[in-house]
Design brief:
Layout: E1 2-8, H1 12-16, H2 20-26, E2 31-35, H3 46-49, E3 55-59, E4 69-73, E5 79-82, E6 95-100, E7 103-109, H4 118-143, E8 147-153, H5 177-187, E9 193-194, H6 195-199, E10 209-210, E11 226-230, E12 243-246, E13 254-262
Parallel strand pairs: 1-2, 7-8
Antiparallel strand pairs: 1-13, 2-4, 3-4, 5-6, 6-7, 8-11, 9-11, 10-13, 12-13
Helix pairs in contact: 4-5
């Protein structure tokens, strides 16, 4: 059994001051995927840059203080790959993956976007490049006898059931028709599945992010933007222990982690 946990830390240095170190010491996870690290490895305290008992790999963004993804594994990875072969995005701190026996685990921070801005154009370019890579990754892993789990902040809600106020968000980044169609292609032609939705098919949400505006957390009006997508067959290798849990929080956003148990 391999337990994988994913969380957007909204700045790892800030999270370290607000309980992340203690959470890390207590977690039972075998692999941890982090997004929005927002720091060079040399800027991180030793206890989270290279924590005892973990093999840590980091992919910071070339732009200081932005993005950044990391992976912690209790087992030494068989291979580490930063980026996905993209000239435009491999130094943007958006993706890193490791090979472990039986599985490749990736940590993804997909650009958030904003309608009518360069940020949305960047998101669309990233999506256009990342989709074929997901298919290639699945084929390559299968040839080596591994499944794939891509965890992280996808910044897209796929279904109407994923949002409490879906009608009001139809023209907002993260729920645009073209973004939802792209995610359908991830779950279709690329051969992946939404792990959380598989295990909670009839649940509204479940949400992993709430805005600080309008008492969204108190009203449970959130977004399920932190997701795990896997190539493993539904109902087979992903256990019913998968779910959401709390992590030390920072600043205005509230987040929870998404955790999965895989048998590999």
């Amino acid at each position: 059994m391999l337990t994988v946990t994913s969380v957007n830390v909204n700045g790892l240095r800030a999270a370290a001051k607000k309980g992340f170190v203690e959470w890390l010491a207590d977690t039972a996870a075998d692999v941890i995927c982090l997004q929005e690290v927002r720091a060079e490895p040399g800027q991180l305290p030793e206890g989270i840059r290279a924590p005892e008992g973990w093999h840590a790999v980091h992919a910071p963004a070339a732009a200081k203080g932005r993005a950044g993804v990391s992976l912690y594994s209790r087992r030494s990875p068989d291979a580490v790959r930063t980026g996905f072969g993209s000239t435009a995005f491999d130094t943007s701190g958006r993706y890193i993956e490791i090979d472990l026996p039986g599985v490749t685990v990736g940590s993804l921070y997909l650009p958030s976007g904003e309608v009518g801005t360069e940020r949305q154009e960047e998101k669309e370019r990233f999506m256009a490049e990342f989709l074929p890579y997901l298919g290639e990754l699945r084929e390559r892993a299968a040839a080596d006898g591994r499944e794939v789990l891509v965890c992280g902040d996808w910044n897209i809600a796929h279904q109407e059931a994923d949002l409490k106020n879906w009608k009001a968000n139809r023209k907002n980044a993260g729920f645009l028709p073209e973004e939802r169609e792209w995610l359908s292609r991830v779950f279709g032609e690329a051969g992946y599945a939404d792990v959380v939705r598989q295990l909670h098919p009839d649940v509204a949400g479940p949400y992993s992010w709430w805005s600080y505006r309008g008492r969204a957390f108190d009203n449970d009006s959130g977004w399920p933007v932190d997701a795990d997508c896997t190539s493993v067959p539904a109902g087979w290798q992903v256990s019913g222990n998968s779910g959401l849990g709390t992590v030390p929080q920072v600043e205005a956003k509230k987040r929870v982690f998404v955790g999965e148990d895989l048998e590999v």
